[in-house]
């Protein structure tokens, strides 16, 4: 007979894999390895699509992976930096990241399928902001920051972060009872308290009514850890489920806001890059000139002399003609002008439209907060949002101020270059075009301004870039430091400014955005982010407090000796059956040296129980080597098990018979063959004060004979499996964590399937 499941790829990997997760929508599998890399592989031949090496900022120790339900974003958690990174599936770059308080041990990202008329109408009305707000201009790709992140065709990929409007939730579990729920993977809607131990598995029912958690509780004295199951019940998760439309709407707003903040941050980084470009040009061309000067007069004086008397000292002349050259000057002028104008463009099109969109969403949020009966109980607070709006206003003011500074700098720049160009043409006794020769008094003032401003010796700047040549006027705005501006804008004689100063009432007015004349653009941006973050924190605490545990049961103990295997693979495994609202837990208990798989079924509504709440499964003889009747039928240990879909569990088995070449088997276990209602009397009454493994002998056991849904894994010490029932694929990993095989699970034709079903019913 043909072996079931078709093998489509096999690889020996250089690093030990510590985690695998199949994409929900495409035949892609994400892996994390011991070195801290995150890799994406295709199903076909297990071909590598990309890899994201560990780096200082993000971290080196990946401890959890999860895909967004639409498969466009991969999230992973890092233990060493306690950060969560959201990464684009198309390119190995972080689109968004945030920090958490404790290191993450488990992640689960699910879609909320709950339907209601209110929600549907909200999902359909999502585009309202698109009608009112102009489309955000795509970020320019010619900067290294953005080039890394965005692929060629479209750079509005930052909008990918928003994803689908349907609510999805990323649930993070970590050490010492840390559990947080993030709507759309970005906005924290709940911090759950009251669970003990470090999280080993999590699962939230798709209507958000019930949360199941498996934790590992370890006493300091005890070398063994206890695995415990918690379930937080429906009655107590009231806020999330009963205010679902409100929570969704609020979360969506916050997701828009986070995306915009990320957009503004990237625009600013591009501006800084354009600025570095200017400094490098200036430094390379002019610094040499200043360093090689021997005379005592300052550069500024030498240029002033040239400006006033039209005659340059021999030294200046030699340097200008030999080092800078007419051609070089032209080039320098052009490159600086283009950098300036690209900074200007970024301010006008990106920063301004980004912050206007921010204002729009924050104002909508404030409107929600004022609708107290709906949103007050969720912890949305109007005064906090008011502060955020003010902070965005200040940021817009600062951006406008930068525009004016650039304007005046550019005027002086152009005048200086034009004047120097003419002067150099004269020195080389070239023909000077008459229109270049005209120089008005105004132009001369511009040049003089430029010289005093840019060539003044500023010893305190010597250790910075642009040392002999002071171009701080614009640069100071782009510095990411808390220092005040070196040369703040001159507000003397500004009538509006004086009017505000003398008017006591207007000073306090909520209608006027505060203005920080001494601060840089970066400083104001950071302040804005801080205030907005403050706003985002509140609802999570309020909603989290409404979640309480209803059930807590201790399953079994594990010894520490097992701990060489990575945390991420070990059972228990949690699954939520959406259609019938049941949580399943898969785990193994060792009994007479056979590792038996146990299935725990619980209804998401804790007040209702499910028959056969817990069962053990043993596998009858598959390989038929010893056909004699008296052979012990329990000859397989279960190494790993995962839900393939709502009806099937995929398992990796190992022969227990002491013999050469113990075979490993990959098999599909249909739940229908486990949950048959043959003997309702054998109910297992479980007193939750005892640990389950202490009474494992009394748990009803089903013996299952697999028909043709299995395959021997030759020449492979298979140990772990990761499956995806939607795409019908599985990936088996060996016990040394380096050998991988991928299978397509569903390859029979229809005839066989019907026979199989008949066999099951018989």
TrEMBL record:
Keyword Nucleus, does the record have it?
A: yes
Please give a single GO biological process term from the UniProt record: cell division
Gene Ontology cellular-component terms for this entry are: anaphase-promoting complex; nuclear periphery
Residue ranges constituting the Anaphase-promoting complex subunit 4 C-terminal half WD40 domain according to the UniProt record: 574-744
Q: In which pathway does it act?
A: Protein modification; protein ubiquitination
> Domain named Anaphase-promoting complex subunit 4-like WD40: which ranges?
20-111
Subcellular compartments: Nucleus
Gene3D superfamilies given for it? YVTN repeat-like/Quinoprotein amine dehydrogenase
Report which superkingdom the organism of origin falls in: Eukaryota
Q: Which UniProt keywords apply?
A: Cell cycle, Cell division, Isopeptide bond, Mitosis, Nucleus, Phosphoprotein, Ubl conjugation, Ubl conjugation pathway
Domain spans labelled Anaphase-promoting complex subunit 4 long: 239-430
Pfam families linked to this entry: ANAPC4 (PF12896), ANAPC4_WD40 (PF12894), WD40_APC4_C-half (PF23405)
Which family does the UniProt entry place this protein in?
Answer: Belongs to the APC4 family.
- Relate the protein's function as given in its record: Component of the anaphase promoting complex/cyclosome (APC/C), a cell cycle-regulated E3 ubiquitin ligase that controls progression through mitosis and the G1 phase of the cell cycle. The APC/C complex acts by mediating ubiquitination and subsequent degradation of target proteins: it mainly mediates the formation of 'Lys-11'-linked polyubiquitin chains and, to a lower extent, the formation of 'Lys-48'- and 'Lys-63'-linked polyubiquitin chains. The APC/C complex catalyzes assembly of branched 'Lys-11'-/'Lys-48'-linked branched ubiquitin chains on target proteins.
> What is this protein's name?
Anaphase-promoting complex subunit 4
